[in-house]
Design a protein that fits this description.
By secondary structure, the protein is of the alpha/beta class. It contains 18 helices and 17 strands. The protein is 40% helix and 16% strand. Helix 14 links the parallel strand 16 and strand 17. The longest helix is centred in the C-terminal third of the chain and has 18 residues.
Length: 482
């Protein structure tokens, strides 16, 4: 019997604060890899369906799939992934269900015990593991002991961890992500405020830092790997040719971590003749190291950098294991602005000793140095050192994973309860974005990207002022009978 594989990103509720959605880079990479090795693969991003759970149920009933891969990239999507696994097992009782993604990989033991319908979890990278499991299943029953590296599974109540799988050293060896498996013209794929020419792409895996709150650091053992600059530009050119994309959001934690790749990227982008705009997230120290490249970044289309500031309080930076100083943050922001590159400052509030005074200090600081504030609530992600410490101290009070979206307080700290943390979060976001300078730049800034971004923020503020929520047109609750 031929193997028919489904890769599934379950139905999700899109973040109301962002109103942005893009196809899963992990599933597109996996689909392309499996197809290049002769497998028949369908890919469903069920968030794009008109009736997400109803349509998914119908497609599973008609599809005849015997292997289903379900992704869960973040803790906030946990409930969706579990509901999807229940639905797959209900409709396809004999299918093999393999799940992956950072959240499931880091919390495999708990998830396997609480979701008995799940057969395997792929730990870390899924390409080689998934393909080898498919081939292993051709000659074995799923209830037999499996030795394919990179798997975690339960049999008869016993927990099995197969040998770990080395990370793929050369990401250029992987095929181009499977954009052809996705309807890139679906209206749900929209980076709100950036227009239809915008697209998010992923060009690297991991990070070389050891931040205590970061699940990526744990998942990839604080290891950064990136595709070559040449291949990054080739993907951008393909997206431009086939889908008319020309504004690129590098949706990874640290796009520019490797100096050699940065030089190659700039060289290849310059030679390509591609007219585009782009922005990325960066560590402070990488901006300081590559100060001589900033002019070329700007010339070739970089209009904004998100700096991982997180805090300016030394004690909080130590708790986060964030190795940067107030002076370095100040210098990196000044460098970017001197080159005409906008600065988005990413800040977290809610650490152990954070108070209103520390929040006021950092908001005053980023008001001076940046163009935009991204203020999130410190969220202890399961599987991280930060989470373990917060649990040990008895501070984690909300165990509903759907709230682990950096906008809901999950834990109290020494100064504030969760309600007080949320109130302060809203207060200082409102204070930052109701300054006269924001309204002036929204209307009159000569920088079109600043006008675009501030108008987006004002739309969000309008919902907040009216105490209403943006409604996702095609949202559908998971069925109760799963």
């Amino acid at each position: 019997m031929p193997v028919k594989i489904l890769l599934l990103d379950p139905p999700h509720k899109i973040f109301g604060a962002l109103r942005m959605w893009m196809p899963s880079p992990g599933l597109m990479a996996l689909a392309a890899y499996l197809e290049s090795n002769g497998q028949t693969v369908d890919l469903f991003d069920a968030t794009t369906f008109d009736r997400p759970w109803t349509d998914l149920k119908n497609l599973l009933t008609q599809g005849g799939y015997n292997i289903v891969g379900v992704t869960c990239s973040a803790a906030t999507f946990h409930n969706d992934a579990v509901s999807a696994i229940h639905l797959v097992r209900k409709i396809l009782p004999n299918a093999v269900i393999l799940a992956g993604g950072g959240h499931l990989s880091l919390n495999a033991d708990h998830i396997l015990k609480s979701v008995p319908e799940l057969d395997y979890i792929a730990a870390g990278e899924g390409e080689e593991t998934f393909l080898e499991l498919v081939r292993w299943l051709e000659g074995h029953e799923k209830n037999q002991p499996c030795d394919v590296p990179g798997l975690i599974y339960l049999r008869n109540g016993n927990h099995y961890l197969t040998p770990s799988r080395p990370l793929i050293s050369d990401l250029d060896a992987l095929p181009m992500p499977g954009y052809h498996k996705i309807d890139m013209n679906n209206p749900v794929y929209y980076l709100h405020g950036m227009g239809p020419r915008a697209v998010g792409i992923s060009t690297s895996r991991g990070c070389g830092d050891h931040c205590t709150y970061c699940s990526e650091a744990v998942l990839w053992n604080s290891n950064w790997r990136g595709r070559s600059g040449r291949m990054v530009v080739e993907e951008m050119r393909m997206l431009n040719r086939h889908y008319n994309k020309s504004l690129f959001v590098f949706n990874e934690n640290s796009f520019n971590q490797n100096r050699e790749r940065n030089e190659s990227f700039l060289e290849n982008l310059g030679k390509s003749g591609l007219k585009c705009d782009f922005w990325f997230q960066s560590r402070v120290k990488d901006i300081l190291r590559d100060r001589d490249l900033l002019d070329e970044f700007k010339r070739l289309g970089c209009y904004e950098v998100m700096l991982g500031v997180e805090s300016i309080t030394p004690e909080t930076l130590r708790n986060y294991a964030k190795k940067q100083s107030f002076e370095e943050i100040l210098e990196a922001a000044a460098l970017l602005k001197s080159k005409g590159i906008m600065v988005m400052t990413n800040v977290m509030f809610g650490d152990t000793n954070d108070t209103e005074d520390t929040l006021k200090q950092i908001c005053d600081f980023v008001t001076r140095i940046g163009d935009f504030l991204v203020l999130t609530i410190t969220t202890p992600l399961p599987g991280t050192r930060y989470y373990s410490q917060a649990v040990k101290e008895g501070r984690v009070e909300d165990h509903d994973f759907s709230h682990y979206d950096f906008m809901h307080p999950i834990m109290r700290n020494r100064a504030c309860n969760r309600d007080e943390i949320l109130a302060l979060h809203k207060k200082y976001l409102k204070r930052y974005y109701t300054r006269p300078a924001i309204f002036f730049n929204m209307l009159f800034s000569p920088n079109p990207f600043k006008r675009m971004a501030y108008r987006l923020i004002m739309r969000y503020a309008w919902y907040e002022a009216r105490n209403t929520e943006w409604v996702q047109k095609n949202y559908e609750e998971a069925p109760d009978d799963l």
